[in-house]
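Researcher: We plan to redesign the surface later, but first we want a full-length starting point. Tokens attached.
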């Protein structure tokens, strides 16, 4: 076991960022099953780089990014505080006779939960074969960073392996200070005004409890050609793919619940400030998409695209402040659902059975149930531009699990604009 000791000379205790608070809330709700949110990455070590230099690269990256050296104090009411450690020890086990790609190792690292109050939120391992380092595996608690920050961390590991000096990084403490500044507080006020106005304008969808124990069944439909169909729609209307998929969701919800206006919390990309380009950290990124659901599909997609722009503009806020505001106004349960659109850089990762699925048909998979969630409905769209998957889970205390294939069929029908085998398969799905 190699022990990487770090001395960065920047110890401090600071209030948390809005992004850290948002992730912390999710972790609290999901304890002790919060390991499912852990992130991981693997990078190959170039030929000729020694084990010593590989360990030094890990040390440089940990020293550069405070989020890798941060624990959290939660011994008082309200949001936790972040404690940045200037000196610390990171264990970096060396895996001898390692597998070529490190998949098994990084999976094992990510499957164990982090105790964020006592444990640094990152784990590394180095795979060695024939005496030469082959790869670095890294697992992180979700509170460390989002996907964009993970890409920054990956590039820094690659640069450090090649001996390149790392640029100064923007740190979570600096983001917390910006959020407390006059500019940040002005952003918070505007965001809260937006959320208050939009939530008050839409009917609640699923606030009535059906009783029973918490249960979160999950289902995914992998649909051949759905990404292409959605992209053609987006091109014909002049909107992005995300607007098309999310239009399908709000149309399906409106049809099922008999409403003419829907509000759906959505994940937003809001890393717009220049310092955030070098930020390995989290941001508050849940915006609110509020849409009038009209019969004209093209108009609905344009309205959804406009709604997504507004959602992103007001997605940066303190989740503690937002939740207090919603509870005070009696709207807390109205936002306990969520949608996420994920454009994929490569091919859709689907089960092997999907290879036999024909055009416009679907493979429907009952996924393992979610251990626990505060969400009553969650939807994720993933597309590579050709094929696509739609994943759903519900809280059966509020929604029947048989609603899921119905919503999926309605969304596929919206996106394909004609009767397809996928839609028929979903309509006839039985558990």
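Model: Full-length starting sequence:
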């Amino acid at each position: 076991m190699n022990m990487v000791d770090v001395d960065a000379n920047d110890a401090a205790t600071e209030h948390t960022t809005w992004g850290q608070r948002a992730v912390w809330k999710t972790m609290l709700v999901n304890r002790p099953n919060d390991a499912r949110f852990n992130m991981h990455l693997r990078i190959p070590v170039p030929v000729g780089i020694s084990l010593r230099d590989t360990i030094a690269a890990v040390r440089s990256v940990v020293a550069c990014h405070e989020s890798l050296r941060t624990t959290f104090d939660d011994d008082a009411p309200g949001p936790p505080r972040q404690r940045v450690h200037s000196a610390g020890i990171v264990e970096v086990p060396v895996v001898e006779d390692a597998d070529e790609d490190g998949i098994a190792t990084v999976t094992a690292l990510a499957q164990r939960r982090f105790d964020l109050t006592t444990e640094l939120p990152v784990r590394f391992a180095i795979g060695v074969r024939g005496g030469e380092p082959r790869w670095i595996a890294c697992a992180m608690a979700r509170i460390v960073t989002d996907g964009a920050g993970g890409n920054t961390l990956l590039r820094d590991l690659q640069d450090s392996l090649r001996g390149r000096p790392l640029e100064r990084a923007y740190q979570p403490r600096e983001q917390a200070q910006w959020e407390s500044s006059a500019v940040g507080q002005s952003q918070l006020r505007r965001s809260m005004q937006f959320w208050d106005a939009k939530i008050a304008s839409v009917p609640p969808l699923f606030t009535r409890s059906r009783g029973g124990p918490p249960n979160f069944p999950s289902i995914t439909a992998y649909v051949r050609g759905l990404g292409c169909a959605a992209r053609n729609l987006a091109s014909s209307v002049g909107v992005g793919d995300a607007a098309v998929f999310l239009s399908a969701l709000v149309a399906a919800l409106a049809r099922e619940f008999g409403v003419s206006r829907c509000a759906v919390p959505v994940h937003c990309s809001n890393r717009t400030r220049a310092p955030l380009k070098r930020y390995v950290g989290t941001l508050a990124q849940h915006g609110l998409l509020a849409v009038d659901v009209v019969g004209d599909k093209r108009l609905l997609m344009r309205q959804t695209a406009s709604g997504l722009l507004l959602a992103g503009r007001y997605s940066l806020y303190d989740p503690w402040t937002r939740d207090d505001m919603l509870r005070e106004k009696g709207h807390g349960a109205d936002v306990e659902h969520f949608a996420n659109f994920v454009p994929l850089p490569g091919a859709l990762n689907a089960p092997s059975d999907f290879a036999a699925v024909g055009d416009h048909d679907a493979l429907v998979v009952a996924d393992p149930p979610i251990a626990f969630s505060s969400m009553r409905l969650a939807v994720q769209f993933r597309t590579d531009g050709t094929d696509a998957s739609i994943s759903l889970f519900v809280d059966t205390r509020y929604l029947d699990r048989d609603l899921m294939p119905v919503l999926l069929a309605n969304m596929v029908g919206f996106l394909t604009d004609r009767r397809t085998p996928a839609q028929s398969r979903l309509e006839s799905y039985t558990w």
